[in-house]
Amino acid sequence: MRMQQVFRVCNSCRHILQRKLIQPLPQVSQALSYTTEPTRYTVSYEDFKYVQDMLPPSRIPEPPTHGSYPTPSGWVAPSEKAPDLPYFISRTKFHVLPIVEKEKPRDQPVTVVFYIDGDIWALEKELKELIRPYVEFDPATRVHEVTRSITLKGHHAEVIEKFLYAKGF
Amino acid sequence: YFRFKMKLCCRKLISPARFILQSIQSRNSHVNREDFIPPNLVMAKVNPLLHNVTIQEVPKISDKIPVFRHCVEKLPKNKNAISVWLDNLLHARPQYNSVVQLHPVLFDTHPRMDILHSVVRWQQEYREVDYSWSRTRAEIGRGKKKPWPQKGTGRARHGSSNSPLWVKGGISQGPRGPRASFYELNPNTLLDGLLIALSIKHIQNDLIIIESAQISQDMPDFDEYLENRNLSEASMLLVHAENENISYLEHLAEDSKLLNIMPLYGLNVCSILKHDKLVLSRCILDELEHKVLWHKTRYPWLGSPHNFYIDMP
């Protein structure tokens, strides 16, 4: 029943619309008609500098120098010269230490340190000694020389980060 | 029959290597030669031990030598700029006058062979199309009728001669139509592959940097240039800038089998590895360095939600 009612209303509307269309359109007066002449304008680039100030850089900028470290967020700048050690850890493109905590493989908590240059085994020895008080058993590590990474069992990112900041990386 | 087979097996067991060799020899005729050495075992084209070649000693680079070109981008803290002798196509004999500095991110990366392999495999595979195609039982075009009645003939029951069990029947699970093997690699992996290829060329002393690729017709003999550097048998890839005039160099490349030229935008991993030596024009170094370092330090989310940046290349 409702559908029939809707249909009836629609039909009546259609009649009204058609009636309106049939009525003659009001004629446009000549004064309002469009002219074919192009509009006059001038090009100016003066205000484009305000646009350029708003545009962001495509490259990640260098971090600003702070008065004291660590900053409120806990970030520490690397030392100006590379520390005199057999190994070196370079920062990521976001100027953060390349330490990752994850639950892999098989949901095991694991910490991975990337971007290691030089003697990777010397760093592995020091990291083992570093996390020894925090684990119940002998600290388990895995050294991957091809991908230049060290994997440690358990979540130790904070400890390693403090250690590497102190070294100057 | 069984004994005969056993004898065959025994013979195979006694000299399996000979059997394999024979089977290979029948396939490849060039292996029959006694002095054949597989190409993967040949170390270099000009072996100083076999051929009596006088090797010119390259002098060591000291700090006093003037530096022709400095690095544009910022260096990593743990590495110094690499200095390489600058060569010139116009000099018949190498003149160790000036030095060019190269960026360590480009020419001193960690050589990840797995990344290099994935890039080479991608370059060889992405452009290939598999055209192999076989007819299914619906496309044979015959076998509409039942070959023989179901019962009474004493033969196996069959409803159609197109069945894959039949000889000249349709093929099931066969290759179907043109299949593109195109896939995309991560652009970061592609860039890493290029840098690894470049640094391998540098590590193996196969990198030559020339002052410019623009040479006129009155330059000295090109063969003499190659002989003085022991390059007469080495294949070379010369990479030049786009604004350089290389009309005469194109003539040289057309005549010689071993020289190929390429603008910077054509530089790729496969052709670097294919040639023995990589010759870079000094003019491309700035652009190459800027492009690579921009990609290394760019925001990964560029292009979304907009594409308007101050220093977008």
Automatic annotation (TrEMBL), chain A:
Keywords in alphabetical order: Mitochondrion, Ribonucleoprotein, Ribosomal protein
Q: Where in the cell is it found?
A: Mitochondrion
* Stored Pfam families: Img2
Q: Which GO terms describe its biological process?
A: translation
Q: Name one GO molecular function term.
A: structural constituent of ribosome
Q: Which InterPro entries match?
A: Ribosomal_mL49
Q: Which family does it belong to?
A: Belongs to the mitochondrion-specific ribosomal protein mL49 family.
Q: Which PANTHER family match?
A: LARGE RIBOSOMAL SUBUNIT PROTEIN ML49 (PTHR13477:SF0), MITOCHONDRIAL 39S RIBOSOMAL PROTEIN L49 (PTHR13477)
Q: What is the protein name given in its UniProt record?
A: Large ribosomal subunit protein mL49
Its source organism is Ciona intestinalis
Q: What does the organism's lineage look like at the top? A: Eukaryota, Metazoa, Chordata, Tunicata, Ascidiacea
UniProtKB/TrEMBL annotation, chain B:
The Gene Ontology biological process terms listed for this entry are: translation
Q: Looking at the UniProt record for this protein, which Gene Ontology cellular component terms does it annotate, in alphabetical order?
A: mitochondrial inner membrane; ribonucleoprotein complex; ribosome
- Matches recorded under Gene3D superfamilies: 3.40.1370.10
Q: Which Pfam families match?
A: Ribosomal_L4
GO MF annotations, alphabetized = structural constituent of ribosome
Question: Coiled-coil ranges per the record?
Answer: none
Origin, by domain of life?
Answer: Eukaryota
Disordered as annotated region, ranges? 142-173
Identify the keywords attached in UniProt to this record, alphabetized: Mitochondrion, Ribonucleoprotein, Ribosomal protein
Tell me the compartments it is located in: Mitochondrion
**Where does this chain mainly localize?**
mitochondrion
- Entry's InterPro entries? Ribosomal_uL4 (IPR002136), Ribosomal_uL4-like (IPR013005), Ribosomal_uL4_dom_sf (IPR023574)
- The signal peptide here is none
Show the ranges annotated as biased composition (Basic residues): 143-158
Please report which protein family the annotation says this sequence is part of: Belongs to the universal ribosomal protein uL4 family.
From the Swiss-Prot or TrEMBL record, give the protein name.
Large ribosomal subunit protein uL4m
State the organism named in the record: Ciona intestinalis
